[in-house]
Write a structure and sequence with these properties.
Elements (H helix, E strand, L loop, with lengths): L13 E6 L3 H11 L5 E7 L2 H11 L3 E4 L8 H11 L4 E6 L4 H9 L4 E4 L4 H12 L4 E2 L4 H9 L9 H16 L4 H11 L4 H8 L3 H15 L4 H10 L8
Parallel strand pairs: 1-2, 1-3, 3-4, 4-5, 5-6
Helix pairs in contact: 2-3, 6-11, 8-10, 8-11, 9-10
């Protein structure tokens, strides 16, 4: 069993737990992340249940989790971890590019979703983003969230016109809490842009982009990327077209 971790002062590094049943992949990830000064790999798990136990003992900032694992898959383990240790964020790192797995991961509380063919820089950015309260949406899968939101059934009623007007006024009020720059970042995140892409387009540092993302999530009370995309659709910031 791993040694118990008792938090004291805020960590100067991002403490990461790796959860994957392939030993070679875990070792490769450990070596890769070890090259980043601000990231420390504090443990490794081979199964979903082992990941849950190690999260309870080590209290990592981020779990980099595969979906397909023996004993308990990564989706179920993620749900347990988010319920038991809400301060620990989960980043799914998987071979699955299907919308089905992507949406399931977000529904069980994953803060990010990345496929294993992604570049090492994407993994670094994803870990940093979720560790600082943001989210990381793998480019190309953002439209899946839009479709899921648009296709959700709604029930019309006689008071709908008045309700829609009140809703528009409420939504406009919500937007006023954001600065113009935060609004830009919100829109680009909802479109599925990476931190690097946003930084390049807005001529900002990645750390500044991460700070804006965290501010947006906090100001709007958004818990995850699913809520962020829904917020953007409701306000017309991105098109609600499947």
């Amino acid at each position: 069993m791993p040694a118990e971790y008792t938090p004291s002062s805020p960590p100067t590094t991002i403490r990461v737990l790796l959860a994957d049943d392939h030993d070679i992949l875990r070792q490769g990830l450990k070596l890769l992340l070890g090259m980043q000064a601000e990231i420390e790999v504090v443990g490794e798990a081979r199964t979903g249940r082992e990941a849950i136990e190690m999260v309870q003992a080590l209290k990592p900032d981020v779990v980099v989790m595969d979906i397909g694992m023996p004993d308990m898959d990564g989706l179920e383990a993620c749900q347990h971890i988010r319920r038991q240790e809400p301060a620990t964020q989960v980043l799914m790192l998987t071979m699955h590019e299907s919308e089905e797995y992507f949406l399931k991961a977000l529904r069980v509380g994953a803060a990010g979703y990345l496929v294993k063919k992604a570049a090492p820089t994407d993994l670094h950015m994803a870990i940093s983003a979720v560790a600082h309260g943001g989210a990381f949406l793998y480019p190309g899968l953002a439209k899946a969230l839009v479709r899921a939101y648009v296709e959700a059934p709604t029930t019309p009623n006689a008071a709908q016109p008045l309700q829609e007007r009140a809703q528009r006024e409420s939504l406009a009020q919500e937007l006023r809490v954001l600065t113009p720059r935060e609004l830009e970042v919100l829109t680009m995140v909802a479109e599925g842009r990476t931190n690097q892409e946003i930084a390049d387009q807005l001529v900002l540092s990645i750390k500044t982009v991460q700070a804006h993302r965290a501010n947006v999530m906090e100001k709007l009370g958004l818990q995850d990327i699913t809520h962020l995309v829904r917020f953007a659709i409701r306000h017309g910031l991105i098109p609600a077209e499947p």
